[in-house]
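SAMPLE LOG
Freezer: B-3
Tube label: C17
Construct: single chain, 569 aa
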Amino acid sequence: MRYLALATDYDGTLATDGQLSEEAIAAIKRLRASGRRVILVTGRRLVELLEILPQIDVFDCVVAENGAVLYIPQTREETVLCRPLPRAFIERLRSLGVEPIEVGRVVVATWIPHQNAVLRAIQESGFELLIVFNKNAVMVLPTGVNKATGLSVALRRLGLSFHEAVGIGDGENDQSFLDRCECSVAVANAVPSILELVDLITKREAGSGLAELVNELIADDLVRMQGKLRRNFIPIGSLEGGGEIKVPPYGTNILIAGPSGSGKSTITAGIVERLIEQAYQVCIIDPEGDYGPSRDVIHLGDSNRAISINEVLSILEDPKMNVSLNLLGIQLPDRPGFFGQLFPSLRTLRTRTGRPHWMIFDEAHHLLPLDWGHLPEILPQKLGETILVTVRPDHLPTAILAMMDVVIAVGPSPETTMKSFSDVTGRSLLWPQGLSSKAGQAIIWFPETGNPPSPMRIIRPKGDRIRHRRKYAEGNMRYHSFYFRGPGNRHNLKAQNLAIFSQIAQGIDEETWLFHLHRQDYSKWFREAVKDPYLADQAARIELQFPQNSKESRKLIRALIDARYTLPE
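STRUCTURE (predicted):
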Protein backbone atom coordinates (compact mmCIF):
# COMPACT_ATOMS: atom_id res chain seq x y z
CA MET A 1 0.00 0.00 0.00
CA ARG A 2 1.16 3.52 -0.77
CA TYR A 3 -0.92 5.32 1.85
CA LEU A 4 -1.05 3.77 5.31
CA ALA A 5 -2.84 6.49 7.29
CA LEU A 6 -5.69 8.98 6.93
CA ALA A 7 -5.59 12.17 9.00
CA THR A 8 -8.98 13.85 9.16
CA ASP A 9 -10.43 17.02 10.61
CA TYR A 10 -13.68 16.73 12.59
CA ASP A 11 -16.12 19.65 12.19
CA GLY A 12 -17.11 20.22 8.59
CA THR A 13 -15.07 17.24 7.37
CA LEU A 14 -16.18 14.18 9.30
CA ALA A 15 -19.06 15.80 11.13
CA THR A 16 -21.93 18.11 10.26
CA ASP A 17 -23.22 20.27 13.11
CA GLY A 18 -20.97 18.30 15.45
CA GLN A 19 -22.45 14.89 14.62
CA LEU A 20 -20.89 12.00 12.74
CA SER A 21 -23.05 10.34 10.11
CA GLU A 22 -23.39 6.57 9.92
CA GLU A 23 -21.83 6.80 6.46
CA ALA A 24 -18.67 8.44 7.87
CA ILE A 25 -18.36 5.97 10.75
CA ALA A 26 -18.77 3.00 8.39
CA ALA A 27 -16.13 4.47 6.06
CA ILE A 28 -13.60 4.80 8.90
CA LYS A 29 -14.24 1.22 9.98
CA ARG A 30 -13.72 -0.01 6.41
CA LEU A 31 -10.48 1.91 6.11
CA ARG A 32 -9.08 0.46 9.33
CA ALA A 33 -10.16 -3.02 8.23
CA SER A 34 -8.01 -2.48 5.10
CA GLY A 35 -4.92 -2.27 7.36
CA ARG A 36 -4.66 1.51 7.45
CA ARG A 37 -4.61 3.84 10.45
CA VAL A 38 -7.03 6.71 11.04
CA ILE A 39 -6.09 9.81 13.05
CA LEU A 40 -8.59 12.45 14.10
CA VAL A 41 -7.09 15.96 14.09
CA THR A 42 -9.38 18.57 15.62
CA GLY A 43 -9.44 21.97 17.29
CA ARG A 44 -11.99 20.74 19.82
CA ARG A 45 -11.15 20.14 23.46
CA LEU A 46 -10.86 16.48 24.39
CA VAL A 47 -13.46 16.73 27.14
CA GLU A 48 -16.16 17.93 24.74
CA LEU A 49 -15.07 15.47 22.08
CA LEU A 50 -15.59 12.58 24.50
CA GLU A 51 -19.10 13.87 25.19
CA ILE A 52 -20.26 14.22 21.59
CA LEU A 53 -18.32 11.32 20.03
CA PRO A 54 -19.16 7.97 21.66
CA GLN A 55 -17.53 6.23 18.68
CA ILE A 56 -14.09 7.71 19.46
CA ASP A 57 -12.65 4.17 19.64
CA VAL A 58 -12.84 3.91 15.84
CA PHE A 59 -9.73 6.14 15.67
CA ASP A 60 -6.17 4.99 16.27
CA CYS A 61 -5.14 8.39 17.65
CA VAL A 62 -6.83 11.69 18.38
CA VAL A 63 -4.99 15.00 18.12
CA ALA A 64 -7.11 17.52 20.01
CA GLU A 65 -6.90 21.23 20.83
CA ASN A 66 -5.41 22.09 17.46
CA GLY A 67 -2.28 20.01 18.05
CA ALA A 68 -1.75 20.50 21.79
CA VAL A 69 -3.12 17.19 23.10
CA LEU A 70 -2.64 13.57 22.00
CA TYR A 71 -5.17 10.92 23.02
CA ILE A 72 -5.00 7.15 22.41
CA PRO A 73 -8.59 5.83 22.55
CA GLN A 74 -7.64 2.17 23.01
CA THR A 75 -5.65 2.87 26.21
CA ARG A 76 -7.34 6.14 27.28
CA GLU A 77 -3.86 7.66 27.43
CA GLU A 78 -3.80 11.45 27.25
CA THR A 79 -0.61 13.44 26.66
CA VAL A 80 -0.35 17.23 26.79
CA LEU A 81 2.23 18.19 24.16
CA CYS A 82 3.04 21.70 25.37
CA ARG A 83 2.64 24.01 28.34
CA PRO A 84 -0.83 25.40 29.15
CA LEU A 85 -1.49 29.08 28.56
CA PRO A 86 -0.76 31.35 31.54
CA ARG A 87 -3.67 31.82 33.93
CA ALA A 88 -3.04 35.58 33.90
CA PHE A 89 -3.80 35.68 30.17
CA ILE A 90 -7.16 33.95 30.67
CA GLU A 91 -8.09 36.32 33.51
CA ARG A 92 -7.23 39.31 31.33
CA LEU A 93 -9.57 38.01 28.60
CA ARG A 94 -12.39 37.83 31.12
CA SER A 95 -11.68 41.33 32.39
CA LEU A 96 -11.97 42.56 28.80
CA GLY A 97 -15.47 41.09 28.58
CA VAL A 98 -14.62 38.17 26.32
CA GLU A 99 -17.46 35.68 26.61
CA PRO A 100 -17.78 32.75 26.12
CA ILE A 101 -14.27 31.41 26.82
CA GLU A 102 -13.50 27.72 26.46
CA VAL A 103 -10.39 26.58 28.32
CA GLY A 104 -8.82 23.23 27.49
CA ARG A 105 -5.66 21.54 28.68
CA VAL A 106 -3.79 24.12 26.61
CA VAL A 107 -6.03 25.91 24.14
CA VAL A 108 -8.14 28.93 25.00
CA ALA A 109 -10.95 29.56 22.51
CA THR A 110 -13.65 32.11 21.86
CA TRP A 111 -15.50 33.46 18.85
CA ILE A 112 -15.49 36.36 16.42
CA PRO A 113 -15.82 39.35 17.06
CA HIS A 114 -13.59 38.97 20.16
CA GLN A 115 -10.37 38.71 18.13
CA ASN A 116 -9.37 42.32 18.86
CA ALA A 117 -9.75 41.78 22.61
CA VAL A 118 -7.69 38.59 22.32
CA LEU A 119 -4.94 40.46 20.48
CA ARG A 120 -4.99 43.20 23.12
CA ALA A 121 -4.66 40.66 25.93
CA ILE A 122 -1.67 39.07 24.19
CA GLN A 123 0.00 42.45 23.68
CA GLU A 124 -0.55 43.50 27.29
CA SER A 125 0.56 40.18 28.76
CA GLY A 126 3.85 40.09 26.87
CA PHE A 127 3.43 36.36 26.27
CA GLU A 128 4.45 34.84 22.93
CA LEU A 129 1.13 33.34 21.82
CA LEU A 130 -0.50 32.42 18.53
CA ILE A 131 -4.00 33.26 17.31
CA VAL A 132 -5.59 30.65 15.04
CA PHE A 133 -8.81 31.26 13.14
CA ASN A 134 -11.17 28.50 12.06
CA LYS A 135 -14.23 30.00 10.41
CA ASN A 136 -15.85 31.90 13.33
CA ALA A 137 -13.74 30.34 16.06
CA VAL A 138 -10.74 32.15 17.56
CA MET A 139 -8.17 29.92 19.28
CA VAL A 140 -5.06 30.90 21.23
CA LEU A 141 -2.12 28.50 21.55
CA PRO A 142 1.60 28.66 22.34
CA THR A 143 3.64 29.57 19.27
CA GLY A 144 4.82 26.61 17.25
CA VAL A 145 1.80 24.48 18.13
CA ASN A 146 -0.64 23.54 15.37
CA LYS A 147 -2.35 20.54 13.85
CA ALA A 148 0.81 19.58 11.95
CA THR A 149 2.96 19.40 15.11
CA GLY A 150 0.36 17.29 16.89
CA LEU A 151 -0.11 14.99 13.90
CA SER A 152 3.66 14.54 13.66
CA VAL A 153 3.69 13.13 17.21
CA ALA A 154 0.72 10.86 16.47
CA LEU A 155 2.25 9.49 13.27
CA ARG A 156 5.60 8.87 14.94
CA ARG A 157 3.76 7.07 17.73
CA LEU A 158 2.29 4.76 15.07
CA GLY A 159 5.69 4.30 13.38
CA LEU A 160 4.64 6.34 10.34
CA SER A 161 5.53 9.68 8.77
CA PHE A 162 3.68 12.37 6.84
CA HIS A 163 4.76 10.65 3.62
CA GLU A 164 2.48 7.69 4.33
CA ALA A 165 -0.48 9.94 5.14
CA VAL A 166 -3.42 11.40 3.27
CA GLY A 167 -4.90 14.45 4.99
CA ILE A 168 -8.46 15.73 4.58
CA GLY A 169 -9.98 18.92 5.95
CA ASP A 170 -12.17 21.93 5.32
CA GLY A 171 -11.11 24.91 7.46
CA GLU A 172 -8.32 27.46 7.80
CA ASN A 173 -6.70 25.70 10.75
CA ASP A 174 -6.30 22.54 8.66
CA GLN A 175 -3.73 24.14 6.38
CA SER A 176 -0.72 23.25 8.56
CA PHE A 177 -1.30 19.50 8.46
CA LEU A 178 -2.63 19.38 4.90
CA ASP A 179 0.60 21.09 3.76
CA ARG A 180 2.65 18.31 5.34
CA CYS A 181 0.71 15.21 4.28
CA GLU A 182 1.95 13.46 1.15
CA CYS A 183 -1.47 13.91 -0.45
CA SER A 184 -3.90 16.61 0.70
CA VAL A 185 -7.66 16.49 0.16
CA ALA A 186 -10.50 18.94 0.78
CA VAL A 187 -14.17 18.11 1.10
CA ALA A 188 -16.39 19.98 -1.34
CA ASN A 189 -17.65 22.35 1.38
CA ALA A 190 -14.14 23.55 2.36
CA VAL A 191 -13.32 27.26 2.56
CA PRO A 192 -11.82 28.77 -0.62
CA SER A 193 -8.28 29.03 0.75
CA ILE A 194 -8.21 25.27 1.45
CA LEU A 195 -9.75 24.41 -1.93
CA GLU A 196 -6.87 26.28 -3.59
CA LEU A 197 -4.24 24.54 -1.47
CA VAL A 198 -5.01 20.84 -1.80
CA ASP A 199 -4.10 18.15 -4.32
CA LEU A 200 -7.61 16.70 -4.56
CA ILE A 201 -11.19 17.85 -3.90
CA THR A 202 -14.04 15.43 -3.22
CA LYS A 203 -17.28 15.70 -5.17
CA ARG A 204 -19.41 15.50 -2.03
CA GLU A 205 -19.44 17.41 1.22
CA ALA A 206 -18.35 16.60 4.79
CA GLY A 207 -18.80 12.95 5.86
CA SER A 208 -20.01 11.88 2.42
CA GLY A 209 -16.88 13.40 0.88
CA LEU A 210 -14.72 11.54 3.37
CA ALA A 211 -16.49 8.27 2.51
CA GLU A 212 -15.81 9.02 -1.17
CA LEU A 213 -12.09 9.36 -0.42
CA VAL A 214 -12.05 6.19 1.68
CA ASN A 215 -13.67 4.19 -1.11
CA GLU A 216 -10.96 5.30 -3.54
CA LEU A 217 -8.15 4.57 -1.08
CA ILE A 218 -9.41 1.04 -0.56
CA ALA A 219 -10.10 0.47 -4.25
CA ASP A 220 -6.76 1.53 -5.76
CA ASP A 221 -4.71 3.51 -3.22
CA LEU A 222 -5.30 6.79 -5.11
CA VAL A 223 -3.48 5.48 -8.15
CA ARG A 224 -4.69 8.44 -10.25
CA MET A 225 -2.53 10.76 -8.14
CA GLN A 226 0.69 8.83 -8.75
CA GLY A 227 3.25 11.04 -10.47
CA LYS A 228 1.03 14.14 -10.08
CA LEU A 229 1.99 15.39 -6.61
CA ARG A 230 4.70 17.65 -7.99
CA ARG A 231 5.25 19.55 -4.73
CA ASN A 232 6.85 16.34 -3.41
CA PHE A 233 9.16 15.73 -6.40
CA ILE A 234 12.91 15.36 -5.75
CA PRO A 235 15.50 17.40 -7.72
CA ILE A 236 18.20 15.12 -9.18
CA GLY A 237 19.94 17.62 -11.46
CA SER A 238 19.43 20.87 -13.35
CA LEU A 239 19.03 21.89 -16.97
CA GLU A 240 21.70 23.84 -18.80
CA GLY A 241 19.40 26.81 -19.23
CA GLY A 242 18.13 26.75 -15.65
CA GLY A 243 15.38 24.86 -13.95
CA GLU A 244 15.58 21.55 -12.12
CA ILE A 245 15.10 17.98 -13.28
CA LYS A 246 12.81 16.34 -10.75
CA VAL A 247 11.44 12.84 -10.25
CA PRO A 248 8.49 11.52 -8.24
CA PRO A 249 9.49 10.28 -4.78
CA TYR A 250 7.41 7.14 -5.20
CA GLY A 251 7.73 4.46 -7.88
CA THR A 252 11.10 5.66 -9.20
CA ASN A 253 14.34 3.68 -9.55
CA ILE A 254 17.61 5.38 -10.48
CA LEU A 255 20.84 3.91 -11.85
CA ILE A 256 24.02 6.01 -11.46
CA ALA A 257 26.97 4.51 -13.36
CA GLY A 258 30.49 5.42 -14.36
CA PRO A 259 34.15 4.71 -13.58
CA SER A 260 35.70 5.22 -10.15
CA GLY A 261 36.32 8.85 -9.27
CA SER A 262 33.93 10.17 -11.92
CA GLY A 263 31.46 11.80 -9.53
CA LYS A 264 28.92 9.05 -8.78
CA SER A 265 29.15 9.69 -5.03
CA THR A 266 28.70 13.44 -5.53
CA ILE A 267 25.45 12.96 -7.44
CA THR A 268 24.22 10.32 -5.02
CA ALA A 269 25.08 12.36 -1.93
CA GLY A 270 23.23 15.36 -3.37
CA ILE A 271 20.09 13.33 -4.03
CA VAL A 272 20.26 11.77 -0.57
CA GLU A 273 20.66 15.21 0.98
CA ARG A 274 17.53 16.49 -0.78
CA LEU A 275 15.55 13.40 0.17
CA ILE A 276 16.42 13.98 3.82
CA GLU A 277 15.57 17.69 3.53
CA GLN A 278 12.08 16.63 2.49
CA ALA A 279 11.90 14.15 5.41
CA TYR A 280 12.08 10.97 3.32
CA GLN A 281 13.82 8.22 5.28
CA VAL A 282 16.90 6.77 3.58
CA CYS A 283 18.91 3.61 4.10
CA ILE A 284 22.37 3.63 2.47
CA ILE A 285 24.23 0.36 2.01
CA ASP A 286 27.86 1.35 1.60
CA PRO A 287 30.18 -1.64 0.93
CA GLU A 288 33.37 0.41 0.67
CA GLY A 289 32.81 3.04 3.35
CA ASP A 290 32.71 5.87 0.79
CA TYR A 291 30.02 7.90 2.52
CA GLY A 292 31.42 10.03 5.31
CA PRO A 293 29.43 11.19 8.31
CA SER A 294 26.62 13.68 7.94
CA ARG A 295 24.48 15.52 10.42
CA ASP A 296 21.28 13.66 9.63
CA VAL A 297 22.43 10.05 9.18
CA ILE A 298 23.47 7.47 11.76
CA HIS A 299 26.47 5.50 10.51
CA LEU A 300 26.84 1.88 11.54
CA GLY A 301 29.81 -0.41 11.06
CA ASP A 302 33.44 0.07 10.11
CA SER A 303 36.45 -2.05 9.24
CA ASN A 304 36.52 -3.43 12.80
CA ARG A 305 32.82 -3.86 13.41
CA ALA A 306 30.20 -5.77 11.44
CA ILE A 307 26.56 -4.76 11.48
CA SER A 308 23.60 -6.50 13.09
CA ILE A 309 20.43 -6.57 10.97
CA ASN A 310 18.32 -6.17 14.11
CA GLU A 311 20.30 -3.05 14.94
CA VAL A 312 19.50 -1.59 11.51
CA LEU A 313 15.80 -2.40 11.75
CA SER A 314 15.57 -1.01 15.27
CA ILE A 315 16.90 2.37 14.14
CA LEU A 316 14.68 2.48 11.05
CA GLU A 317 11.57 1.89 13.18
CA ASP A 318 11.79 5.59 14.00
CA PRO A 319 10.53 7.55 10.95
CA LYS A 320 12.91 10.41 11.66
CA MET A 321 16.06 8.29 11.57
CA ASN A 322 18.28 7.68 8.53
CA VAL A 323 21.03 5.11 8.46
CA SER A 324 24.19 4.35 6.48
CA LEU A 325 25.67 0.86 6.68
CA ASN A 326 29.43 0.56 6.27
CA LEU A 327 30.17 -3.04 5.23
CA LEU A 328 33.96 -2.91 5.55
CA GLY A 329 33.69 -5.17 8.57
CA ILE A 330 32.23 -7.90 6.34
CA GLN A 331 34.52 -9.81 4.00
CA LEU A 332 33.89 -9.17 0.30
CA PRO A 333 32.70 -12.75 -0.45
CA ASP A 334 30.26 -12.54 2.48
CA ARG A 335 28.59 -9.26 1.46
CA PRO A 336 26.03 -10.75 -0.94
CA GLY A 337 24.98 -13.16 1.82
CA PHE A 338 24.57 -10.27 4.28
CA PHE A 339 22.59 -8.34 1.70
CA GLY A 340 20.49 -11.44 1.02
CA GLN A 341 19.44 -11.42 4.68
CA LEU A 342 19.06 -7.64 5.01
CA PHE A 343 17.11 -6.87 1.84
CA PRO A 344 14.03 -9.05 2.60
CA SER A 345 13.91 -7.52 6.09
CA LEU A 346 13.95 -4.00 4.63
CA ARG A 347 11.20 -4.94 2.18
CA THR A 348 9.10 -6.36 5.03
CA LEU A 349 9.60 -3.15 7.01
CA ARG A 350 8.62 -1.16 3.92
CA THR A 351 5.42 -3.19 3.49
CA ARG A 352 4.44 -2.54 7.10
CA THR A 353 5.49 1.10 7.50
CA GLY A 354 6.16 2.43 4.00
CA ARG A 355 9.81 2.96 5.00
CA PRO A 356 12.66 3.30 4.39
CA HIS A 357 11.32 5.54 1.66
CA TRP A 358 14.52 5.21 -0.38
CA MET A 359 17.27 2.60 -0.42
CA ILE A 360 20.68 3.44 -1.84
CA PHE A 361 22.95 0.56 -2.88
CA ASP A 362 26.46 1.87 -3.47
CA GLU A 363 28.83 -0.44 -5.34
CA ALA A 364 25.71 -2.44 -6.12
CA HIS A 365 27.71 -5.08 -8.00
CA HIS A 366 29.28 -6.09 -4.66
CA LEU A 367 25.81 -6.77 -3.26
CA LEU A 368 24.26 -8.38 -6.35
CA PRO A 369 27.06 -10.10 -8.30
CA LEU A 370 26.03 -11.81 -11.50
CA ASP A 371 27.43 -15.17 -10.49
CA TRP A 372 25.74 -15.31 -7.09
CA GLY A 373 23.56 -18.42 -6.92
CA HIS A 374 20.89 -16.90 -4.66
CA LEU A 375 19.98 -14.07 -7.07
CA PRO A 376 16.65 -15.60 -8.19
CA GLU A 377 15.53 -15.87 -4.55
CA ILE A 378 16.51 -12.29 -3.68
CA LEU A 379 15.36 -10.34 -6.73
CA PRO A 380 11.94 -8.77 -6.18
CA GLN A 381 9.14 -8.46 -8.72
CA LYS A 382 9.18 -4.73 -8.06
CA LEU A 383 12.06 -2.70 -6.65
CA GLY A 384 10.66 0.74 -5.87
CA GLU A 385 12.40 3.93 -4.71
CA THR A 386 15.96 2.68 -5.05
CA ILE A 387 19.25 4.17 -6.24
CA LEU A 388 21.82 1.72 -7.61
CA VAL A 389 25.40 2.96 -7.95
CA THR A 390 27.87 0.89 -9.98
CA VAL A 391 30.93 1.12 -12.18
CA ARG A 392 29.30 -0.64 -15.14
CA PRO A 393 25.64 -1.49 -15.71
CA ASP A 394 26.50 -4.88 -17.22
CA HIS A 395 27.89 -5.93 -13.84
CA LEU A 396 24.33 -6.04 -12.49
CA PRO A 397 21.52 -8.57 -13.11
CA THR A 398 19.37 -7.85 -16.16
CA ALA A 399 16.19 -8.21 -14.09
CA ILE A 400 17.31 -5.38 -11.80
CA LEU A 401 18.41 -3.11 -14.66
CA ALA A 402 15.05 -3.62 -16.37
CA MET A 403 13.39 -1.89 -13.40
CA MET A 404 15.38 1.35 -13.80
CA ASP A 405 13.35 4.45 -14.67
CA VAL A 406 16.28 6.89 -14.75
CA VAL A 407 19.86 6.27 -15.88
CA ILE A 408 22.62 8.78 -15.06
CA ALA A 409 26.03 8.30 -16.67
CA VAL A 410 29.11 10.12 -15.41
CA GLY A 411 32.74 10.15 -16.45
CA PRO A 412 34.60 10.61 -19.75
CA SER A 413 32.67 7.96 -21.73
CA PRO A 414 28.95 8.31 -20.92
CA GLU A 415 27.98 6.85 -24.31
CA THR A 416 29.78 3.61 -23.45
CA THR A 417 27.98 3.45 -20.10
CA MET A 418 24.57 4.08 -21.67
CA LYS A 419 25.22 1.53 -24.43
CA SER A 420 26.13 -1.05 -21.81
CA PHE A 421 22.75 -0.46 -20.15
CA SER A 422 20.81 -0.53 -23.43
CA ASP A 423 22.54 -3.71 -24.62
CA VAL A 424 21.75 -5.58 -21.40
CA THR A 425 18.13 -4.41 -21.16
CA GLY A 426 17.25 -4.33 -24.85
CA ARG A 427 16.25 -0.65 -24.65
CA SER A 428 16.67 1.29 -27.88
CA LEU A 429 19.34 4.00 -27.51
CA LEU A 430 19.64 6.93 -29.91
CA TRP A 431 22.72 8.94 -28.97
CA PRO A 432 22.47 12.63 -30.01
CA GLN A 433 25.27 13.84 -32.21
CA GLY A 434 27.81 15.92 -30.31
CA LEU A 435 26.57 14.87 -26.86
CA SER A 436 29.55 14.38 -24.55
CA SER A 437 30.54 14.76 -20.94
CA LYS A 438 31.73 18.10 -19.56
CA ALA A 439 33.02 19.21 -16.18
CA GLY A 440 30.21 19.44 -13.60
CA GLN A 441 27.85 17.61 -15.94
CA ALA A 442 26.33 14.15 -16.33
CA ILE A 443 24.17 12.54 -18.99
CA ILE A 444 20.63 11.55 -18.02
CA TRP A 445 18.23 9.20 -19.79
CA PHE A 446 14.60 8.29 -19.13
CA PRO A 447 14.41 5.04 -21.15
CA GLU A 448 10.64 4.64 -20.99
CA THR A 449 9.92 8.01 -22.61
CA GLY A 450 11.52 7.15 -25.95
CA ASN A 451 13.51 10.39 -25.82
CA PRO A 452 17.30 10.36 -26.27
CA PRO A 453 19.74 11.07 -23.41
CA SER A 454 20.44 14.71 -22.57
CA PRO A 455 22.99 16.71 -20.55
CA MET A 456 22.32 17.43 -16.90
CA ARG A 457 24.19 19.76 -14.59
CA ILE A 458 25.11 18.10 -11.30
CA ILE A 459 23.59 19.64 -8.17
CA ARG A 460 26.34 19.21 -5.64
CA PRO A 461 25.49 18.45 -2.03
CA LYS A 462 25.87 21.26 0.44
CA GLY A 463 28.52 19.01 1.89
CA ASP A 464 28.14 19.85 5.55
CA ARG A 465 30.20 16.91 6.75
CA ILE A 466 30.67 16.60 10.46
CA ARG A 467 34.21 17.41 11.46
CA HIS A 468 36.05 16.06 14.46
CA ARG A 469 35.36 18.10 17.55
CA ARG A 470 38.48 17.11 19.41
CA LYS A 471 37.57 19.11 22.49
CA TYR A 472 34.66 16.76 23.04
CA ALA A 473 35.99 13.63 21.39
CA GLU A 474 39.51 13.45 22.83
CA GLY A 475 40.21 16.57 24.93
CA ASN A 476 39.61 17.40 28.58
CA MET A 477 36.16 18.82 29.29
CA ARG A 478 37.21 19.47 32.91
CA TYR A 479 34.20 20.42 35.06
CA HIS A 480 31.85 19.51 32.19
CA SER A 481 32.94 15.87 32.40
CA PHE A 482 30.45 13.05 32.89
CA TYR A 483 30.62 11.02 36.12
CA PHE A 484 29.41 7.42 36.23
CA ARG A 485 28.31 7.20 39.88
CA GLY A 486 25.36 4.81 39.94
CA PRO A 487 22.89 4.30 42.81
CA GLY A 488 24.20 5.46 46.18
CA ASN A 489 27.24 7.09 44.50
CA ARG A 490 29.02 3.74 44.60
CA HIS A 491 31.36 4.85 41.76
CA ASN A 492 33.08 8.05 40.78
CA LEU A 493 34.30 7.27 37.26
CA LYS A 494 35.12 10.44 35.35
CA ALA A 495 34.64 10.61 31.58
CA GLN A 496 36.47 13.77 30.55
CA ASN A 497 35.56 13.36 26.89
CA LEU A 498 33.39 11.25 24.60
CA ALA A 499 36.13 8.72 23.84
CA ILE A 500 36.54 7.90 27.54
CA PHE A 501 32.76 7.97 28.03
CA SER A 502 32.40 5.35 25.30
CA GLN A 503 35.12 3.18 26.87
CA ILE A 504 33.56 3.28 30.31
CA ALA A 505 30.09 2.70 28.85
CA GLN A 506 31.33 -0.50 27.25
CA GLY A 507 32.43 -2.04 30.53
CA ILE A 508 30.37 -0.42 33.29
CA ASP A 509 28.06 -2.73 35.23
CA GLU A 510 24.44 -2.99 34.14
CA GLU A 511 22.95 -1.44 37.29
CA THR A 512 25.05 1.71 36.98
CA TRP A 513 24.35 2.04 33.25
CA LEU A 514 20.57 1.70 33.74
CA PHE A 515 20.63 4.07 36.73
CA HIS A 516 21.83 6.93 34.50
CA LEU A 517 19.71 5.74 31.55
CA HIS A 518 16.47 5.98 33.59
CA ARG A 519 17.41 9.48 34.75
CA GLN A 520 18.16 10.46 31.13
CA ASP A 521 21.57 11.65 32.30
CA TYR A 522 23.23 10.74 28.99
CA SER A 523 21.02 12.90 26.80
CA LYS A 524 21.21 15.75 29.35
CA TRP A 525 25.02 15.65 29.24
CA PHE A 526 25.09 15.57 25.45
CA ARG A 527 22.75 18.55 25.35
CA GLU A 528 24.15 20.72 28.15
CA ALA A 529 27.87 19.90 28.23
CA VAL A 530 28.69 18.55 24.76
CA LYS A 531 26.19 21.01 23.27
CA ASP A 532 25.06 18.65 20.54
CA PRO A 533 21.24 18.79 20.23
CA TYR A 534 21.12 16.08 17.56
CA LEU A 535 23.16 13.63 19.66
CA ALA A 536 21.01 14.53 22.68
CA ASP A 537 17.73 13.99 20.81
CA GLN A 538 18.78 10.59 19.51
CA ALA A 539 20.12 9.51 22.90
CA ALA A 540 16.83 10.57 24.51
CA ARG A 541 14.97 8.41 22.00
CA ILE A 542 17.16 5.44 22.92
CA GLU A 543 16.69 6.11 26.66
CA LEU A 544 12.92 5.97 26.23
CA GLN A 545 12.90 3.06 23.77
CA PHE A 546 15.16 0.71 25.77
CA PRO A 547 14.58 1.58 29.48
CA GLN A 548 15.37 -1.98 30.63
CA ASN A 549 17.76 -3.12 27.91
CA SER A 550 21.31 -2.32 28.98
CA LYS A 551 22.98 -4.16 26.10
CA GLU A 552 20.99 -2.56 23.26
CA SER A 553 20.88 0.96 24.71
CA ARG A 554 24.62 1.19 25.39
CA LYS A 555 25.43 -0.30 21.97
CA LEU A 556 23.27 2.28 20.17
CA ILE A 557 24.50 5.25 22.21
CA ARG A 558 28.13 4.24 21.63
CA ALA A 559 27.41 3.83 17.91
CA LEU A 560 25.99 7.36 17.82
CA ILE A 561 29.14 8.76 19.41
CA ASP A 562 31.41 6.77 17.10
CA ALA A 563 29.54 7.99 14.03
CA ARG A 564 29.66 11.67 14.98
CA TYR A 565 32.96 12.15 16.76
CA THR A 566 35.48 9.34 16.55
CA LEU A 567 35.81 9.07 12.79
CA PRO A 568 39.09 9.21 10.87
CA GLU A 569 40.09 12.50 9.30
